[in-house]
Structures are given as structure tokens and as C-alpha cells.
UniProtKB/TrEMBL annotation:
This is Leucine-rich repeat-containing N-terminal plant-type domain-containing protein. It comes from Brassica napus. It is a single-pass type I membrane protein. Belongs to the RLP family. Residues 1-31 form the signal peptide. It comes from the Eukaryota. Residues 38-80, 515-560 form the Leucine-rich repeat-containing N-terminal plant-type domain. PROSITE patterns: LRR (PS51450). Residues 1117-1141 are annotated as: Disordered. The chain crosses the membrane at residues 459-483, 490-509, 1145-1169. It is found in: Cell membrane.
Length: 1185
């Protein structure tokens, strides 16, 4: 028996050995495992076989697909690294010929997220099966020759963000199901929309057309339209308003933000009620408005209107004034008086006439506009007093009279006095609350200042005279000593010395500035008004400090030549000058100017005078970032006037204006030019026109109106150092750049470049390739070791918004001097490389937001110079790296929407300048406060810990040390911050006014936000919240807060959004919240609040849902009136008493009925028993006895 068991064991061991050897053979004999799944490969190969190919087209991607290779490596294919599923198929221009069948094997690729079949011959009907790709985000079918109806199944693609059906022959109606595509944000507008003749409503506002070109004639046949909104299209095409002259049903037409042409004879027969023509580059007031009698909304702001507002605008006949609601003519160049007839528009709600050149007095007839809620007359030239009658406008919640020439006392009405002092600023003659200057104070102060200044000047003159007198006496003494024997000479010297002394003491100190130069500058100053913006900390209108009785060479922005007193430099950058630069401007009397900088004055407008060319000594001319809109210089082609040949100009800045037209004439003379800025040019530019600029070092052609044309054979001789080609519609990497060894700074972002990032780019110091379609990096990961080059050049690398996949390439770790790395908005996966520690001593900006990175964040990657870290929207886990505590310069930290599992990082309090802390949507847990220890985040502006698992109580003094949220809002705190953070895109999610939004750009400086929603916090809301007077958004919803709403919330006078919903708050809503005039959105729902709702305007304007599910609340906007509850309770009590009495009566009646029936039954039973069972009945009685 023992031997039998041994034989069995041997048999088992033998089988195991054979199996193991067989398995080893299989492993060694098998090829390397492929990422691609076999079912995906088969579907792709079958899809390829469904088409035939043009014999002469040798570039189709599918030719290189073979069954023996990994399909994830095939051209045009991208796979999910974890699953092997095909997620992207890009066969653009692959010479596919044949129809796309409804049972095509393509539809077996169920995990596709991006599909591009554009520029193939797929003539046929687009099958309904296209709607089966439930994960699809990008669908490009441009130029495929599809015809027939657009399939309604497209509405199933709920994740779709990009749809391109242009260049096909679709017919029929647009499917209603397309309204389900609420994620759709961009793509060309399909030409087939022109065939949807029954369409009545089209809204394409803020649509990103991708190519920047729209054929507006596609709307020509849509005569049934009643509502059309194509405002702010990403389009550079011209729209002629006569396109709509045959439309008869339009009631809403919004065209803002487009380049508009309006004929003076245009007539629109449609009964338009709402018309938006803002920012349309219109220079002549539209006459067709005169016949639009049904208007109730008109926005023609931010155009180029000049002259007077036509009187007929205020006298539109019929029902016009009764239903007029909004007029916006701001941001133009309108002048003259505001007409009295504006008082006829009694139903007007919003009136904006700001940023024009209106003069005269504010018409008292404005007091007739009893429904007016918003009035803006700022940044004009209005004089006189603010009419006291405006006190009658009880609905007027917001007004602005700043930057005018108003004077006298400010009316004392409640609505006027509730305004911020900034609404009346920069009116030197205004006085009274809310300004700090009391009436009568200004003149006395001015007189005192003048007297003090005059005394000071006299003292300085005497000091200067005394200093000059002493050397004069000494010189006279020496000369007299030498010539002591010649008495005549001595006497002459004595007379001369005394005369000189008298002249010195009698004369004022000599000015360096020549009088003609001073007069020219003073006259130039008076040609403009200054429209200062107090919200900007760098606000510095230099001309305001100029004084006519001082040396003009000491004026701010002015520099003179010491030998001659001629002005050679005038630098008024960012001085808030407003007005046109006239051809006869006194500026051109400064004939010796070498440097002229009028940049960053956005309210300078009109044609650039050719007189500029007469300033023959100019070496630097900067007119960037102004409001110049001319296509010509005083009637001629765009030229720099009569510049000398060759010109002395070395720096020419014309960028960020609205120039258009070809660059002609004198550009060939600019042979000395080193710096040229033509960004935002509104016409085509051919790169070859710059070939003769052989000294050019810096060139900016970013954001042109059309494509920049760059030949593939271009040879550019200039020693170019910096080149900016952002958003130039470039589709191929310019080849000439590779040979430019002098190039150090390259911005080629926001173009359409695909393929690999060239290896040679790593020699540049600054590289921005963001917002393109790059998919990988050229060269192996050890490219630097192989080439023997030291990768110490690149310091700034921005590669966000591309199509990078896989792991972050290790070659980046070799960039040991890297300071800024931005790889956000790609599809990188895997871990954050440990080798990032190679540049942790230099890195200051690290942004990896919105990828698919996982694992823990490596502690070693954090360096002491880090200023901004953004790893939001990934899959990172573990704990927040505590090495961040060493980053004493850290300002921005965003880890939102990850899987961090940690307690609150109290140690971040030691970071002295941390301003933005976003921990939103993770698994942080535990308390957010230490017992008896306040949270001192003194610089914090955004604090978002929402959607976590935090618990505990917030102490009463929790917010006591948060001083940045108590100080006034400043848009930009320091120029250094602008320089550090201007070159990359920051974005965080924010819940504001009940909706999710992305906070980007200047919003970081403006918004001051606290969001602790979606946790498990409890206890009272801290009273110290009332200290944060500059708070804009407060969200404490969806917690377990108890107690009363603190009345100190009424101190938050800048609050715009307040959400306290879904807690356990009790008591009343504090009446003091009526003071919060900027509070546009609030939510108190789902609590246990009671009592009347305060009746302030802002509170009463809310929807009733903001107060719902609070059984004790009453009053408008709820339908339950106050007192109604007690009456109901009393009525209910009475009904209960009546019911109880009724129940008692019913109980007695039931008892009586039961008793009667009982007696009867007992009698019958007794009779039967006594008659037939008498002996048995007697035994029962005896037993009871």
C-alpha cells in the first residue's frame, strides 16, 4: 500500500514536470507579447479590406498595416496602454475609396474616442451605426463626399466635443437629437446647414470654428429663422449685414464680435426685438436702426462710432419706448450732449454710455427712468453736478459716474449713498459721501499746496544762488590776487562779481528744458483725457504729475539731451491716455525724439498720422496694445510715413492693435530693425517680406487674421533670437528654423502641427509648442548621451494641449536647468518619473494637469524654488508630499480631482506666500483645524477643500488670520508676478452661483473664494467669517453645520455668491444680509430655518428654490405668507378637537349597538338551552356556583 501511494506521487510529480517544461517551451518559443488585442487587430484589417486604394497614392497609412506587427504601433492608431483597446483612429487623407457600410468592422472598435476619416472618398450615406461609439469625443468627417440625411444617431454621442461634417453633401433636416450633444464646443460650421430651410432657431455663439474662416452665405437660405445668435465666433471672415435684408421673421439677431459691414442704405424688414452688434468694428452709426420700432435690447458697444448720437435713437415711434429695456453704446467715440429725450424711455432697465467723449451736463430727465437698475456714464467728459432728481430712482442698484469732470455735492439718496466711492472717483470737483472729501475742502487744499510749493521753489532758488555765489567770490579773489597791481582790472573784476551776484540772487534756477519743448509736451498732454483704472496696482498716468512751472526734463516719462535741452525720449507706456492721435498733434513738434513709447494705452484710437515719419531721429517706436484700427496711414498704404532711407528704427512695435491691409512701402527701408512686433495683424502676411531685414533679432507675428505663409524652401538670413508664431494656422514645422543657431526663444503654440517634436528643439532656452497636435518626441530617451551634447539649454518647456500619450519621456529629465515644465491637457499615463529630481533645484513651475498619471507623487521631485504646482485631474494617490513644506516660494497648489488619501496638510501654513490652495475632490479626511489654534493663511485667496471627507468643528476664530481676503481686490499685484506667470495657462474648477466654472487668467487675482462644501463639517459657522470683507464666493453647502447664520456675513460687501444649503442651520435669515448689494446668487435651501425672509432687492430677486425645504420660512419669494402657519396650526387643533369628540360619540354608538345585539343573542341562546338542554344548563350554573 505504501509503494502504491509512492507510485501515485511519482506520477503526479512527473506530470507537473512535463507541464512545466512544456510551458517553458511555449514561453520561449512565443514572440514578445503585443499590446494590441487580437479582436481589435482583426477589426482593423477587415476595415482596411473594405476599401480599394488609388494606385498612384503611395502615402496611405493602411499600406503599412501588417498582420505580423502590433496594431497599436500602426500608423494612425493609438491604444489604451492598460487594455489594448484602440482609442484613436486617424486616417486623414489615406486615399480610402468606397462607401462606409452599416455593418463595417469599424463599428467593432467600441472603445474609440477619436475618429478622423477626413479627406477620403467615402461617397454614400453615413450609416446610423456611427452613433454606437459611446465613448467618442472627436469625430472628423470633413470632405468625405457623404450625402443624404445626417443620421439622428449622432445624438447618442454624449461625450462628443468636436464634430466636423463640413465639405459633404448632406441634405434634409437637422436631427433634433443633436441637441443632446451638450459637450460640443468646436469644429467648422457644416455647409449643409444651408439646406435646412425650415430652421427657425440657430445658436452658435462663442463657437470655435477651428479654422477661423466662415462662409456666412450658408445662412442665406434660412429664411424661416426667428432667432440667430452667431456672436463671438472664432472667425476672421467679414460679415455683410445685407445678407439678412430678405429675412422677414428675425426677432433676435446677435452678431457681436464679428467683422461687420453695414451699408448706409441697408433696410432690414424683420421685426427685430433684440440686436447685439458689440465689438463689430463699425465706424458709422447704423441708419437702419431708425426703422426698428420693436427693439427692446440694443448693444452697439465697443465699436468705433464718432460724433453725436442721432436724436432719432431716443424717439423711436410706436411701442418702442414702452418696451425698451437695454441700451449699450459704451466703448465708442460718441460726443456731444446726452439728449434730454432719453427720459422718454421710461421702461429702460440698463443704460451704458461709458467710455465715450460725451460732454455737457447729465440730463435731469434721467430721473424719469423709474425702472432703471444699472447706469454707467463713466469715462466721458461730463461736467456740472449730478442731478439731485436721481434720488427718485429707487431701483437703481448700480451706477458709475467716475472719470468725468463733475463737481458739487453728491446727492444723498439711499441708492446713491450705497455705492462704492470708486463710482464717483476721478471727478476733482465732486465732494461729499461716499467720497472722503467733504464739500469746500478741495479748494483750500489746492491753494495750500500751491503756496507750499511756491515757498519751496523760492527756497531752492536761493540755495542754488548761494551755492553759485561762493565759487564766484573765490574765483574773483584769485584773479584779483594775480592782478593785484593792475587796479583797473581789479575794479572791473569787482564790478563783474557784484553784478553776477545780483543776477544770481535775482534770477530763478535755470531749467534744462527748452520752452518750445515744454509747450509742445503740455499741449500734447491736453489733447487727451486720462481714464485711470484704480483696480490696477500698476496704474500710473504719468502726465498727471506734470506741472507747467517745473523743468519738463524732470517730468515722468521725459528724457532730454543735456547739451541742448531737446526732448529725446517720451515714454508714456500705460498712462491711460484716451483720444485720437491727430495729424497736427503737438507731439510732432518734438523733432529730436529718438524714443517714442505710447504702448498699452488701449483708448488711443484712429489713424496713425503719417507725420510720424517726420521724426527722422526715431530709433524706437512702440504703439503696441493700443486701440488703433486704421488700415492706412492718413489715406496711404500702411507705411511708416516718410522714414529716412535707410531708416534708423531699431524697434518697431505695432502689435495688439486692429491694423489691417498689406505691409507695403517703407518696410524695405527698415534695414536696421532689430525688434518687430506685428501681432494681431488683420491681414495675410508672407514671411518672405522680412528677408531683407538682415539685422532682425526679435519678431512677433502671433495671432494674425489669416494664415502666415512660410515656404518650405525659405532661407532666412537674419540672426533671429526670438520668434513668436502663435496661432498662425501653420500645419508644418518651419524647416528653416533648424539652421538658425542663434534662435533661443520659440513660441509656435496654437497651430495645427502634427507628428513628432523635433530633436533639435532642446537646444533652445524657451520652447512653447502648446495647443498643437504633436503626438511624440523625436529621438530615443537617451538622445543626449548618444549625441554627447549637454542638455543644459532648455529652461522653459510648454507642451500642453497636444496629443501626447504613454509615459512622460525620460529625456526631459536630462534638462538639468529646467525652470518651467507644462505638460497639462495631454494623455500621459504611468507614474511621475522619479528622475524629475534632476531639476528639483531649478524648477519653479510644474504643471501636469488633466492627464492620466497615477501612483504616488515622488517626494524627491519637489524643490525649494517651486512657485506653482498643478497636478489636478489625474489619478494620483497616496499622501500629499511633505517636501512641499520646503517650498517657501510656493504660491499656487492644485491637486483637485485625484485620489489622495491624507489628513489636512496643516504644515502648509508655514508657506509665507501661498495664495491658491485647491484640494477639491479627493479623499482627504479628518479635522481641518487644531484645537485652540487658528488657521493663519495670511496670503490665501482661493481655499477649496470641497468634495472630501473632512470632519469636525471650525473654531469661532478660524478665519481670523486670513488677511489677504480682508484687503482690497487688486487685479494684478505686481509686475513681477505678471512676468513669472504670463507664459502658461492656470485653471482650477470653481463652484460659483450654483454652477461649475473654470477659473483662468486674471480671475485668479480677482476672485477670493472659500469652498468647504461636500464634507462632514459640523458645529456653528465661525463668526470670524465676517472679517473676510473682500470675499467674492462662499460655499459651505452639503455639510452638517448647525446653529444660526452669523449676522457678521453682512460685512462681506463684495460677496457675489453664497451657498449654505443642505445643512442643519436654524433660526432666521439675518435681515442685515439686505446690505449685500452685489450678492447675485444665494441658496439657503434644505435647512431648518424659520421666520420671514428679508425683503431686500437682492434677496427678493432669487428663485423660490433658494429657500425651499425650510418648513418654518415664510414670505416672498415663497408662496407661504407669514402668519399663515399659526392660523393653520390653530385650525388644525380645532379640527383635532372636533374629531376627538366625534370619535367619542361614535364609540358610544358602537357600544350601544354591540350591547343590544349581545342581549338579543344571549336571550336566544338561553331560551334554546333551557328548552332542550335543561340538565346541561343546570350543571353549568352549579359549576359557577
Amino acid at each position: 500500500m505504501h509503494s502504491c501511494s509512492e507510485r501515485k506521487m511519482m506520477t503526479i510529480w512527473s506530470l507537473c514536470l512535463i507541464f512545466s517544461l512544456f510551458n517553458s517551451l511555449l514561453i520561449f518559443a512565443s514572440p514578445a507579447k503585443q499590446l494590441c488585442r487580437s479582436d481589435q487587430k482583426n477589426a482593423l484589417l477587415e476595415f482596411k479590406s473594405e476599401f480599394h486604394f488609388n494606385a498612384i497614392a503611395g502615402n496611405e497609412k493602411t499600406q503599412r498595416w501588417t498582420n505580423t506587427t502590433d496594431c497599436c504601433s500602426w500608423d494612425g492608431i493609438s491604444c489604451d496602454i492598460k487594455t489594448g483597446n484602440v482609442v484613436e483612429l486617424n486616417l486623414w487623407g489615406s486615399s480610402l475609396n468606397g462607401s462606409l457600410r452599416s455593418n463595417s468592422s469599424l463599428f467593432r472598435l467600441q472603445h474609440l474616442q477619436s475618429l478622423n476619416l477626413s479627406s477620403n472618398n467615402l461617397a454614400g450615406i453615413l450609416p446610423d451605426s456611427i452613433g454606437n461609439f459611446k465613448y467618442l469625443k472627436v469625430l472628423k468627417l470633413y470632405g468625405c463626399s457623404f450625402f443624404g440625411n445626417i443620421p439622428s444617431s449622432l445624438g447618442n454621442l454624449s461625450y462628443l466635443t468636436h464634430l466636423d461634417l463640413d465639405g459633404n453633401d448632406f441634405t434634409g433636416e437637422l436631427p433634433e437629437s443633436l441637441s443632446n450633444l451638450n459637450q460640443l464646443t468646436n469644429g467648422p460650421i457644416p455647409g449643409s446647414i444651408s439646406k435646412l430651410v425650415g430652421l427657425s432657431y440657430v445658436d452658435l455663439s462663442f463657437w470655435d470654428t477651428e479654422r477661423g474662416v466662415v462662409d456666412f452665405s450658408i445662412f442665406l437660405h434660412l429664411k424661416s429663422l426667428t432667432l440667430l445668435d452667431i456672436s463671438h465666433l472664432n472667425s476672421r471672415s467679414m460679415l455683410d449685414l445685407s445678407l439678412f435684408s430678405n429675412f422677414t421673421s428675425l426677432t433676435l439677431l446677435h452678431l457681436s464680435g464679428n467683422n461687420l459691414h453695414i451699408s448706409s442704405t441697408l433696410h432690414l424688414p424683420s421685426p427685430i426685438g433684440s440686436l447685439g452688434l458689440s465689438s463689430c468694428n463699425i465706424s458709422e452709426f447704423p441708419k437702419f436702426l431708425r426703422t426698428q420700432t420693436g427693439l427692446f435690447f440694443l448693444n452697439i458697444s465697443a465699436n468705433q462710432f464718432q460724433g453725436h448720437v442721432p436724436e432719432w435713437l431716443w424717439r423711436l415711434p410706436g411701442l418702442g419706448f414702452r418696451i425698451y429695456k437695454t441700451i449699450d453704446v459704451s466703448g465708442n467715440r460718441l460726443e456731444g450732449d446726452i439728449p434730454q429725450s432719453i427720459g422718454l424711455l421710461k421702461e429702460l432697465i440698463m443704460l451704458n454710455m461709458s467710455n465715450n467723449a460725451f460732454t455737457g451736463h447729465i440730463p435731469p430727465s434721467l430721473s424719469n427712468l423709474t425702472n432703471l437698475q444699472s447706469l454707467d456714464l463713466s469715462q466721458n467728459r461730463l461736467s456740472g453736478t449730478i442731478p439731485p432728481e436721481l434720488e427718485k430712482l429707487t431701483f437703481l442698484a448700480w451706477m458709475n459716474f467716475s472719470n468725468n469732470m463733475l463737481e458739487g455735492p453728491i446727492p444723498q439718496g439711499t441708492q446713491i449713498q450705497s455705492q462704492n466711492s470708486s463710482s464717483f472717483a476721478h471727478n476733482p470737483g465732486l465732494c461729499g459721501a461716499p467720497l472722503k472729501r467733504s464739500c469746500g475742502e478741495g479748494e483750500e487744499e489746492a491753494r495750500k499746496q500751491d503756496e507750499e510749493k511756491e515757498e519751496k521753489d523760492q527756497v531752492l532758488s536761493w540755495i542754488a544762488a548761494a551755492i553759485a555765489y561762493a565759487p564766484g567770490v573765490f574765483c574773483g579773489f584769485v584773479i584779483g590776487h594775480i592782478l593785484e597791481r593792475k587796479m583797473i582790472t581789479w575794479r572791473l573784476c569787482l564790478v563783474f562779481s557784484l553784478s553776477y551776484s545780483v543776477l544770481v540772487f535775482a534770477s530763478p534756477a535755470k531749467n534744462l528744458c527748452r520752452p518750445d519743448q515744454r509747450d509742445a509736451l503740455w499741449d500734447f498732454k491736453n489733447e487727451f483725457i486720462v481714464q485711470k483704472d484704480d483696480r490696477l496696482s500698476y496704474s500710473n498716468p504719468k502726465t498727471e504729475s506734470w506741472r507747467n512751472n517745473t523743468d519738463c526734463c524732470s517730468w515722468d516719462g521725459v528724457r532730454c539731451y543735456l547739451q541742448t535741452g531737446n526732448v529725446v525720449e517720451l515714454n508714456l507706456w500705460g498712462s491711460f491716455l484716451s483720444g485720437p492721435l491727430r495729424s497736427n498733434s503737438s507731439l510732432f513738434r518734438l523733432q529730436h525724439l529718438e524714443i517714442l513709447n505710447l504702448g498699452s494705452n488701449p483708448n488711443l484710437y484712429g489713424n496713425i498720422p503719417s507725420s510720424l515719419g517726420n521724426l527722422s531721429y526715431l530709433t524706437d517706436l512702440v504703439l503696441s496694445d493700443c486701440g488703433f484700427t486704421a488700415t492706412r496711414f492718413d489715406g496711404g498704404p500702411l507705411d511708416i510715413g516718410n522714414v529716412s532711407s535707410p531708416s534708423k528704427l531699431r524697434n518697431l512695435g505695432l502689435g495688439r492693435n486692429n491694423f489691417s491691409g498689406p505691409m507695403l512701402g517703407s518696410t524695405s527701408k527698415l534695414v536696421s530693425l532689430k525688434d518687430l512686433d506685428l501681432s494681431f495683424w488683420r491681414d495675410s502676411l508672407n514671411f518672405s517680406i522680412f528677408l531683407h531685414l538682415t539685422s532682425l533679432e526679435r519678431l512677433d507675428l502671433s495671432y494674425p487674421n489669416t494664415r502666415i505663409m512660410i515656404s518650405s524652401t525659405l532661407h532666412f538670413p537674419s540672426p533671429i533670437y526670438m520668434l513668436k508664431l502663435s496661432s498662425c494656422n501653420i500645419s508644418h514645422f518651419p524647416k528653416f528654423l533648424q539652421s538658425k543657431t542663434s534662435l533661443s526663444y520659440l513660441d509656435i503654440s496654437a497651430n495645427q502641427i502634427e507628428g513628432q517634436v523635433p530633436e533639435w528643439l532642446w537646444r533652445l532656452r524657451y520652447v512653447d509648442i502648446s495647443q498643437n497636435s504633436f503626438s511624440s518626441f523625436e529621438g530615443p530617451s537617451d538622445v543626449f548621451q548618444r549625441s554627447g551634447r549637454q542638455p543644459n539649454s532648455t529652461m522653459f518647456f510648454l507642451g500642453s494641449g497636444n496629443l501626447f500619450t504613454g509615459e512622460i519621456p525620460r529625456m526631459i529629465c536630462e534638462l538639468v536647468n529646467l525652470q518651467t515644465l507644462v505638460l497639462s491637457n495631454n494623455n500621459f499615463s504611468g507614474f511621475i518619473p522619479q528622475c524629475f529630481k534632476n531639476f528639483n533645484t531649478t524648477i519653479s513651475v510644474l504643471h501636469l494637469q488633466n492627464n492620466s498619471l497615477s501612483g504616488a507623487f515622488p517626494q524627491e521631485s519637489i524643490g525649494g524654488r517651486l512657485r506653482s504646482l498643478d497636478v489636478g485631474h489625474n489619478r494620483l494617490s497616496g499622501k500629499l508630499p511633505k517636501s512641499l513644506v520646503n517650498c517657501t516660494q510656493l504660491e499656487f497648489l492644485n491637486v483637485e480631482d485625484n485620489r489622495f488619501n491624507d489628513t489636512f496638510p496643516f504644515w502648509l501654513r508655514s508657506l509665507p506666500i501661498l495664495q491658491f490652495l485647491v484640494l477639491r475632490s479627493n479623499k482627504f479626511h479628518g479635522p481641518v483645524s487644531f484645537p485652540q489654534d487658528s488657521m493663519n493663511f495670511s496670503k490665501l485667496r482661493i481655499f477649496d477643500v470641497s468634495q472630501n471627507l473632512f470632519t469636525g468643528v471650525l473654531p469661532s476664530d478660524y478665519f481670523a488670520g486670513w488677511s489677504a481676503m480682508s484687503s482690497p481686490v487688486v487685479y494684478v499685484e505686481a509686475i513681477v508676478h505678471m512676468l513669472v506667470f504670463q507664459n502658461y495657462h492656470k485653471s482650477v474648477g470653481l463652484t460659483n452661483k450654483g454652477s461649475n466654472m473654470d477659473l483662468v487668467g486674471s480671475g485668479f487675482r480677482i476672485y477670493k473664494t472659500i469652498d468647504v462644501s461636500g464634507n462632514r463639517l459640523e458645529g456653528d459657522i465661525p463668526q470670524s467669517i465676517g472679517l473676510l470683507k473682500e470675499l467674492v464666493v462662499l460655499n459651505m453647502s452639503n455639510n452638517a453645520f448647525t446653529g444660526h447664520i452669523p449676522p457678521s456675513l453682512s460685512n462681506l460687501t463684495n460677496l457675489q455668491s453664497l451657498d449654505l444649503s443642505r445643512n442643519r442651520l436654524s433660526g432666521t435669515i439675518p435681515p442685515d444680509l439686505e446690505k449685500l448689494t452685489f450678492l447675485a446668487w444665494m441658496n439657503f435651501s434644505n435647512n431648518m430655518l424659520e421666520g420671514p425672509i428679508p425683503q431686500g432687492t437682492q434677496i427678493q430677486s432669487q428663485n423660490s428654490s433658494s429657500f425651499a425645504q425650510n418648513p418654518g420660512l415664510c414670505g416672498a419669494p415663497l408662496k407661504r405668507s407669514c402668519g399663515e402657519g399659526e392660523e393653520e396650526a390653530r385650525k388644525q387643533e380645532k379640527e383635532d378637537e372636533e374629531k376627538e369628540e366625534k370619535d367619542q360619540v361614535l364609540s358610544w354608538i358602537a357600544a350601544a349597538i354591540g350591547y343590544g345585539h349581545g342581549v338579543f343573542c344571549g336571550f336566544v341562546i338561553g331560551h334554546i338551552l333551557s328548552s332542550y338542554r335543561h340538565d346541561w344548563l343546570m350543571r353549568i350554573f352549579r359549576s359557577f356556583a
